[in-house]
Amino acid sequence: RISPPQLIALSFAAGILVGAALLALPVTHGAGRSVTFLQALFTATSALCVTGLNVIDPGRDFNRLGQVIILILIQVGGLGIITFGTVFALVTRRRVNYSERIRLAQQVSAFSAGDVVPLIRNIFLYTFVIEGVGALLLALRFVPLEGWGRGLFYAVFHSVSAFNNAGFALYSDNYLRFVGDDLVSLVTAFLIILGGLGFLVQLNVVAHLLRPRRNRLLVHSKLALTMTAALLLFGTLIYLGLEWNNPRTLAPLNLEDKLLASFFQSVVTRTAGFNTLDYGVMGPATLFLSIILMFIGANPGSTGGGIKTSTFYVMMASAWSMVRGRGEVVLFSRRIDRETVIRAMTVGLLSIGLVNLMFVLLLIFNTNPNLPFLHLFFESVSAFATVGLSMNATPLLNPAQEIVVILLMYLGRIGPLTFAVAFNSREEADLVKYPAEKDILIG
Amino acid sequence: RISPPQLIALSFAAGILVGAALLALPVTHGAGRSVTFLQALFTATSALCVTGLNVIDPGRDFNRLGQVIILILIQVGGLGIITFGTVFALVTRRRVNYSERIRLAQQVSAFSAGDVVPLIRNIFLYTFVIEGVGALLLALRFVPLEGWGRGLFYAVFHSVSAFNNAGFALYSDNYLRFVGDDLVSLVTAFLIILGGLGFLVQLNVVAHLLRPRRNRLLVHSKLALTMTAALLLFGTLIYLGLEWNNPRTLAPLNLEDKLLASFFQSVVTRTAGFNTLDYGVMGPATLFLSIILMFIGANPGSTGGGIKTSTFYVMMASAWSMVRGRGEVVLFSRRIDRETVIRAMTVGLLSIGLVNLMFVLLLIFNTNPNLPFLHLFFESVSAFATVGLSMNATPLLNPAQEIVVILLMYLGRIGPLTFAVAFNSREEADLVKYPAEKDILIG
Ligand SMILES: [K+]
Ligand SMILES: [K+]
Questions:
Q1: Closest-CA distance of chain B to residue A343, Å
Q2: Which residue of A16, A55, A149, B193 has the lowest C-beta tally within 10 Å?
């Protein structure tokens, strides 16, 4: 009998191996290009884990068939993550009591209660509708730019890549050419933000907007919306403030484009991995704060990575309440129980430990003097948090380092997902001032 | 009415200002040297917080009078830290119940029970005896090297600096010249290890050795001894393994000196700050692991800094028990209660947060292209954990950065000390399998 965490780990590993085998076939490679098995394995891992790091150039080293396989890997990976996350949150997790779970399921599946099949159908339906709308909007730019055939494919590819927070682009410079392009930047950013909110939050918001009385906003949704807004604002201010005078990033742009580029980079840093500015030439302060944003990541139950906004919030809020000498953490008038606090801190610490361990391996294996400390640190966090941004270090990695990054992408993807499921739930007989809050997803 | 944390914060601030005023007086400066007030403030902070970072060269920029003032600041700082830590652990902390406290006090003061005055007298007596023995042994090298007057002063200065984990040396190259010197290396290392064990542990061990039946080894002592041994071994292996081939550190040394230097660097990295190898030329993997060792630091209740070995152990052990699906952490057959787990994780996360925040400020204020990311990161952790090692970056800091490092040394010193006192204690009505362990000092 196989446990849910084992199921997740095995299904991702199997998907990666199938994808790698397909991408290693010469029939998927670009004309005159060749891709080694390790490069195919790296690309398949990056696609299925919706990371977006690339040792090669997917727009040139793979032909249309190879790109379609990458597209399918991204879509399967993204749907897999959302489905696993949502189903486990609603059905398997023992922490949410049964009646709460039914009520939650009723809200998010909007039509039918509790069953897994209609829930998954709704997830698929919703995903394809949003991606379709995104592709139509992007086609307004890509068709004039690339012609009908290529333009439509590019529109679909980048819409899927954005909504699933994959960060794969078919241009060699990723999105650098779109730095001042309102349409591409804003549509892509909007798809990324929606994808990063998570399925439960999106449907809860839709249900709430349609019938505010019947469908209240869940604590989980309120937290996700608040944290997303706060982190987006914080990130925009970081890029705007610290890169304003950098002649290789913001300085040459006019005010409107400075704002657009800062907002876009703020959106992608949290987990998506597209970029309209070059992270290889940003200042060290910007890069370090980007590393922190990447590490925090997106909301639980989304295709985004990192330790998740809720984990970060609970960690910070409980540390702060400890400093203030208070025994409990309160969130939207509900008490967060100690088990949740310990779980959040555990996810945070294990993640820091894993990233540091893998980073040390990257340092020890390093043979390239053009890969300094910061480049490899940035790369480690980007891989772990399935962001896919790079200080242009990925193509410079040697095979041993590529294997470390593959491991990091895989563990960064399945780790938080399986923690959320694997944690043993134990009820606490505690003095309750506020009703205990147990349905915040951690990891 | 003043609270214990406020008392600690204020007395350290007052001591720093008095020290800075004295070290700013020209009468304390070396012949032909001048020291600005900011440099004096930096030196006084570094001395009183027993950190050991230096923007100037204390062996040359101060005369004998200035060096005596530094010596006094180190001794006052060290005794202050031990006394505060021990008294609060035994007397003020509400977490240890009264009868346990009396028993603990009986053990450690060895003669009389519970009173603060004999306890403090014993702390002072014990400190001076160890420092005296250390000075006599060091004089065997320093007197032949420097003559009677200077040699004896150097012996006393370096013994006090070592036992208090201060890391101040009167040679411009710190301890580089003693890389192959068994006597100086081993005596200094032994003083550092004793000082880093903490007063409670040392007296508990002595009492245990004298009367094994009456005075059992406390859980706190067992943990401190185990962690110290494990971290020393781990550190030695890191330096030995990663620097073996480095032509600028271990490569030129013979096997015995390689071992001696690796062991010595392992001892100092954990908090003391002397160095017989140059950290400015070590490999990035060595440096990153050194940063982790510095961050972990020494034992609670000692003059060492960092988040402390017990905090690190509880964090790691509880994260591991969470992964294994166990609800509780067991240490030497005793259960660690959840309050302790949350406290440990809080100390760890707040420390990471503080170091990162100050590090970002160092990056933002940076004007020197010769101070890259890693140098400033190493400097931040070294200052916070009151280690005092540097990749030779300290003298290159600009005034704004010096102020940040001063703040970091001060907060890194008083932060963990006051957390340990400030945390509110709340009893838990929990299902107990093992007797709850509440007397592990955190921070
Ligand atoms: K991504
Ligand atoms: K020190």
A1: 8
A2: A149
Give the residue numbers spanning the domain of A335: 4-437
- For B159-205, the DSSP string reads HHHHHTT----SSTTTTGGGTT-HHHHHHHHHHHHHHHH-HHHHHHH
Q: Nearest C-alpha of chain B: how many angstroms from A422?
A: 7
Show residues of chain A in contact with B364, CB under 8 Å.
Answer: 242, 285
pLDDT tens for each residue of B88-97 = 666 554 444 4
CA-nearest of B245, B233, B243 to B270 is: B233
Using one digit for the tens of pLDDT, what is the confidence trace for B279-327? 999 999 999 999 999 999 988 878 888 998 988 998 888 888 877 766 6
Counted domains in chain A: 1
**Radius of gyration over every alpha carbon of chain B, rounded to an integer in angstroms:** 21
Protein residues within 5 Å, CB atom, of ion ligand 1: A 52, 165, 167, 273, 388
Q: Is residue B34 part of a domain?
A: yes
Q: How many CB pairs under 8 A join A and B?
A: 115
What are the CA-CA distances from residue A8 to residues A83, A271, B213 (Å)? 11, 21, 53
Between B319, B359, B360, which is nearest A350 by CB?
A: B319
Partners of residue A341 in chain B, C-beta under 8 Å = 342
**Euclidean distance between CA atoms B368 and B371, whole angstroms:** 6
- Identify which has the larger pLDDT, A39 or B344: A39
B271 CA to middle of ligand 2, Å?
5
Query: Which pLDDT belongs to residue B201?
Result: 84
Q: Are A285 and B364 in contact (CB under 8 A)?
A: yes
Spatial separation of the C-alpha atoms in residues A322 and A316, rounded to whole Å: 10
Is residue A210 in some structural domain? yes
Count of CB atoms within 10 A of residue B147's CB?
11
Residue in the block written with tokens 């897999």: A80
> Ligand nearest B412 Cα, by number?
2
| Position B435 pLDDT exceeds 50 | no
Tell me the two tokens of residue B176. 């580089």
Judge whether B67 lies within some domain. Answer: yes
Q: A323–B372: do the CB atoms touch at under 8 Å?
A: no
The answer as to whether B442 is a domain residue is no
